[in-house]
């Protein structure tokens, strides 16, 4: 039976690199984003390169609980993914004490609550099947506080804590849970920054790390994987 992967926010950056890596191995793909044009372009590209796989895309704003539920139900009507990558995220700079009103709620709903609700949507069936691998795309900001990180850093600290809890809860059920904690990665989030590309992590390297962690034997799991630029944090 063909395997499948669900990656939220899969049209760009790390999410797209992960999708490309697994699609190249014959995985069916489920993904979502808020931009329909980007989704359709991704679907067309994947189906052209990998004609034997199935690609399902859906326009969804996962900062909204009802959209998470709708998207998860759309996926469950088609398959129970073997791999779930909670990748949706947003970065809005600012300090906790004076960032714009509403930033905290919006970032937490986008970065954390979406992963909470989506994971819960599939875990029961994964437990029944006794297999599955959950990845949370965290950040170095979830390990080290830094100025102007504000609510984004808080959301990533909380994501790491939630992932640790899921790891403990799901280990008896043969479900693997992994936190990917990446430093500055060359994606659209860093557009306009006057630094050479060599100063950043490649999104493809993060994808290779996810693929490698997924392919370990059943008795082994990568719990946390820290990935930094060779020259250190930016």
List keywords for this structure.
234 residues, alpha/beta, Rossmann fold, seven-stranded parallel beta sheet, globular
Explain what this protein looks like in three dimensions.
α1 links the parallel β1 and β2. The protein has helices at residues 13-23, 36-49, 65-76, 103-129, 150-170, 203-214, and strands at 4-8, 28-33, 55-59, 83-86, 133-137, 176-182, 224-227. The chain has a single domain, classed as Rossmann fold. The protein has 6 helices and 7 strands. The protein has a 7-stranded parallel β-sheet with strand order 3-2-1-4-5-6-7, with helices on both faces. α3 runs parallel beside α4 and α4 runs parallel beside α5 (150-170). With 234 residues, it is an alpha/beta fold. Helices cover 41% and strands 15% of the residues. The relative contact order is 0.14.
- Based on secondary structure, the structural category is alpha/beta
In round numbers, the mean pLDDT is 94
Radius of gyration from the alpha-carbon trace, in angstroms: 17 Å
Number of strand elements: 7
Going by CATH, the architecture would be: 3-Layer(aba) Sandwich
Enter the CATH topology name.
Rossmann fold
């Amino acid at each position: 039976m063909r395997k499948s992967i669900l990656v939220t926010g899969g049209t760009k950056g790390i999410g797209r690199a992960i999708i490309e890596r697994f699609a190249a191995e014959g995985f069916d793909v489920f993904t979502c984003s808020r931009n329909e044009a980007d989704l359709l372009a991704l679907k067309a590209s994947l189906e052209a390169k990998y004609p034997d796989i199935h690609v399902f895309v859906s326009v969804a704003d996962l900062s909204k609980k009802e959209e998470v539920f709708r998207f998860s139900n759309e996926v469950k009507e088609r398959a129970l993914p073997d791999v779930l990558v909670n990748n949706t995220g947003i970065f809005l700079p600012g300090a906790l004490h004076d960032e714009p009103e509403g930033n905290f709620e919006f970032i937490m709903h986008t970065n954390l609550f979406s992963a909470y609700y989506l994971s819960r949507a599939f875990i029961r069936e994964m437990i029944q099947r006794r297999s599955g691998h959950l990845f949370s795309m965290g950040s170095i900001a979830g390990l080290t506080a830094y100025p102007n990180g504000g609510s984004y850093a808080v959301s990533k600290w909380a994501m790491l804590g939630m992932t640790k809890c899921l790891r403990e809860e799901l280990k008896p059920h043969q479900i693997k849970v992994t936190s990917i904690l990446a430093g500055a990665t060359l994606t659209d989030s860093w557009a306009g920054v006057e630094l050479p590309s060599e100063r950043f992590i490649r999104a493809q390297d993060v994808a290779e790390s996810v693929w490698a962690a997924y392919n370990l034997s059943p008795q082994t799991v990568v719990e946390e994987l820290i990935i930094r630029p060779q020259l250190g944090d930016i």
